[in-house]
Amino acid sequence: MRVDRNTTFREIFQFPAFSALVPYLIGNCEIPDPDWTLEEMQKHFPDWVPEVIGPGLERFACLAEGSPACGSEDAGESGIAYDIYSEEEMEKAPGLRTTKLFFMPGRPGMPYVVICPGGAYGAVCTLKEGFPTGAALNRLGYNAFVLCYRVMDEKNLRERRTEGILPLPQEDLAAALHFIRAHASGLRIPADRYAVAGFSSGGHLAGTWAIPELGAARYGIPAPEMLILVYPAMDPTRFTGEIEGLILDNMFGTERSSIDVERWNVNRHITKAYPPVYLMHWLDDPLISVETSREMVRRLSACGGQYIYRELARGGHGFGPGDKETADIWLADAVRFWEKQEAMR
Fold it and tell me: Is there a smaller number of Cβ atoms within 10 Å at the N or the C end of the chain?
């Protein structure tokens, strides 16, 4: 499949290898018109960048087709799309059917990254932030998993309006990692050598995963070796603009308290035990203040934590990893930092 600025969403949705996967590609994102091209989508929503979406979707399409040229022979007998819950669990709780785990194989034996796209906990921006990041990691040899986790879709909005979606996404990340670790041999990956990457609200999900009482330790899973956080929503008190009310309602519900908000404020939980962090934010982010990331850096520095912080002048919010060249540069920087931490152990 070739994807360029003139590719329409209808063409993407009708690609044969995607026949059962379309809901997870979109992840509750609203596509106003399936006949819009990616270029038209960008005109209305500037953070939908064809040069970012294209390489990721092409890589994923090649894997979905099962082409040996794409490395799909390393994806296991069941392909690249996995349920993280059993059929029995999904029968009892139909909302679990909105979850899915996609495997984008790199080189066998290399570590893996679980990617949590953002979407204000109301959507999962797989096309913008998931597949492009996975494709870039694959080019560096790293294995990647893209997680579609539960969000405040129409059904959850009715059932959880007053209490919010948390901690359901954390439960989904736990289920994904239990699945990955149980199948590590077949997937040809080291079970416990992993990082978690997150964008925006997915950055909040990744950040909470490193907090013992909220994340990995709570679910009996080893902590990640590193976090990769891009314009992350770490501090719920610093949301700005149109996202503020929406994401707070999605996270904590309409009857939230200040105690709820503080409990899930990642920056309040940072200690020396927090894993190394590669962090990026843009000064002109209109939705999540750059001060969120600066505060994280201050707290990591104060407790002697390991981190790299990249602050860029222009980029806004929601643009994903950048085009192919940009993604390759900064992700290579991130994995070098990861490798350095491993060498120091």
Answer: C
The answer to whether residues 214 and 170 touch, using CB atoms and an 8 Å cutoff, is: yes
Domain limits for position 98: 9-344
Q: What does pTM read for this prediction?
A: 0.96
CATH number at residue 141: 3.40.50.1820
Q: Give me the pLDDT at residue 79, please.
A: 62
CB 198 within 8 A of CB 163: no
Within a domain: residue 2?
Answer: no
**Cα 316 from Cα 298, distance rounded (Å):** 22
What are 205-208's contacts with CB under 8 Å, separation 24+?
A: 205/116, 205/149, 205/169, 205/170, 205/173, 206/116, 206/232, 207/232, 207/234, 207/266, 208/170, 208/264, 208/266
What would the 3-class secondary structure string for 294-339 be?
HHHHHHHHHCCCCEEEEEECCCCCCCCCCCHHHHHHHHHHHHHHHH
What residue has token string 């893209």? 146
Angle between helix 168-182 and 201-209 (nearest 10): 60
The answer to whether residue 1 sits within a structural domain is no
Q: Is residue 41 part of a domain?
A: yes
Burial of 97 (0-12, 13-18, 19+ CB in 10 A): middle
Spatial distance between the Cα atoms of 103 and 125, rounded to a whole number of angstroms: 16
Sheet (strand 277-282) strand order? 81-82, 100-104, 143-148, 112-116, 194-199, 226-230, 277-282, 307-312
Residue 76 has a pLDDT of: 45
Kindly state the tokens that stand for 151: 């969000």
Question: What total of structural domains would you count in the chain?
Answer: 1
Query: Residue 156 falls within a domain, yes or no?
Result: yes
CA dihedral 338, 110, 323, 334 (to 10 degrees): 0
pLDDT tens digits, one per residue of 91-135: 999 899 999 999 999 999 999 999 999 999 999 999 999 999 999
